[in-house]
Task: structure prediction
Amino acid sequence: MNCLRIFSLTLLAAASVVAPGFSQQSESQPSPPPQVRSFDASAIDKTADPCVDFYQYACGNWVKENPIPADQVRWARSFSLLAERNRYLLWKDLNAAASHPKTPLEKKYGDYYAACMNTDLVNQKGLQPIEPAFNQIAELSDTHRLAALVGGLAEQGDPVNLFRFNVQQDEKDSSKQIAGVSQAGLSLPDRDYYIVDSKRFESIRKEYVEHVTKMFSLAGDSPDQAAKEAAAVMQIETALAKASTSRTELRQPENRYHIYTLADFEKLTPEFDFALYFKDVKVAPFETLNVATPDFFKEVNELIGSEPAEAWKSYLRWHVLHTFAPNLPKAFFDENFSFFGKTLQGQKEPTPRWRECTTMTDRALGEAAGQEWVRENFPPAAKASMDKLVASMEKAMGEDIKTLPWMTDATRQAAEEKLAMIRNKIGYPEHWRSYAALKVERDDLIGNLRRDTVFQRNWNLGHLGKPVDEKEWDMTPPTVNAYYEDSMNDINFPAGILQPPFFDPNIDPAVNYGGIGVVIGHEMTHGFDDQGAKYDGKGNLRQWQTDADKKAFEERTSCVADEYSGFEAAPAHGEVPAQHLNGRLTLGENTADNGGLRIAYLALLNTLADEGKSIDEKIDGYTEAQRYFLGFAQVWCQNQTEQSARQLALTDPHSPGRWRTNGSVQNFDEFGKAFGCKKGQPMVPENSCRVW
Ligand SMILES: [Zn+2]
Result:
């Protein structure tokens, strides 16, 4: 899945990023955030030259006047402010449902939210909710019983993150839903944190081991025992990190597609009884599966042979403790925040509890709570005008494909066919998911989390062998994001992003095309980015470009990759070297940004022509063309802690706001024309890149 912004859900992430915990301090009542303006002249830094640094020009004043709030690590003008607003509106529904539910469904999500908010009960219960899992782990005496233990923990919804198992579409036959296993098992944000030889990572590793030790001590282990356990955790996680495929390599579908018979997979991992595990998680029988990362499973197998049962017990205990830490008593919460929030990401204060509980409820019961949210915040008229906008974008992309200089007619025709087959999903699902099988108890937070894990897994595994349901969504309605799915060839826009400042029925078309127009174009272009272009219109991995066109395409995507690798995510200071972007990790997103900016501009020209207006017409002192580029740039105004910038440069396939803006305008001649720049100025370089 390719999405618009950070924190995407991805089934194949190399490591799970654990969000920092939340505050258990006294809670201030949330207050309604204002609606964000679509176009903000006061954000502009008029002392900056748009032709030298357009991001600084469009966002400079906003960046100066909007420091990162203490409970955030990144603060973005559009994304953060709209997400705050959407979350507040959702909170109002949850809070009302928690005290006066009107329907059984409202009672369910109201109770889920209320259980999360009850930190007094969390503190009172202590570690009692996770003791059964600890006791099961303590009984492991022989590593040959590891699969039985892991399966048993998974069955009851305890976190076992050693690997990932789910049902997914077959990359080569998207009509089929098959089983798949992939790498996981790490606690730090990426494998690099374990294996890269640098002062910064050495120090993070040292602090991580200290943190794990403290957590074991808090759980009641003696200092010696805690230190020994932490060392075992680090040893196993480091071995798993070394055997993990990098995020950049994992972006390539051919690197994560290895169909095994069940028998061959069991031969790959004789030390771990997968048949038993599959039985425990109650998946229907199957004959073949996709082993995304065979080398990783080889290493898991070797580790089971080489690490003693004691080490595995420490590893499993850690993952239970770590995963539940934000929902355990205050001492655990604080220690977890101190390392995963403060040290790793530079977050000063924990996220307020109401905010985390709202997010958690949205994650668990999003299509239940989202129903009310949509009724209140997404009128039918908004959907109708979004349909029109998407149609205008599809037309513009068709025109763009017709005029591309590097394509032969055969490839052009295939691209047009793929474009015509893209399905659009706007706002919210036609059919809401049923939560009947999810039991929620108002006085059992950890139990709810466990039951939710089992519920979500059963839902996913239930797809095995069934026809694909094109109407399912991967994001909940209030989400400020959008995505394109390669195997579905569809673009998806939750109601949460179809709001100001992205989409504003009361503003001139230039600003709307710079906002939601570029978002739509971004998602459409994902179908044609360096990885998306490997799939045909049906969502199957199949080459549809001629060999010569494929070569020309790869030369063009390489130009983008090299360009973005030159951009800095964090500057050098003292002995700490600069952190550059990884142009190959971010290539799909950057290609989508570049394509989106170009296509939305074409669609804007068409719209203005239909209305008999000119792109040079001025509104409030800026031409329509300038307002388009400013509207686009102001989506990306942001402040970010250095720690978070460095972390995301390694883990996030999206570039930071500055480069999403400057990188895109540098590659589009119309920008230079709109601001009267001269060829050779930084935003109008002699050599620029263009794919679509
Ligand atoms: Zn994207």
Summary: The longest helix spans residues 353-377. The first strand starts at residue 2 and ends at 3. The pocket of zinc ion is lined by residues 2-4, 522, 526, 589, 592 (CB under 6 Å).
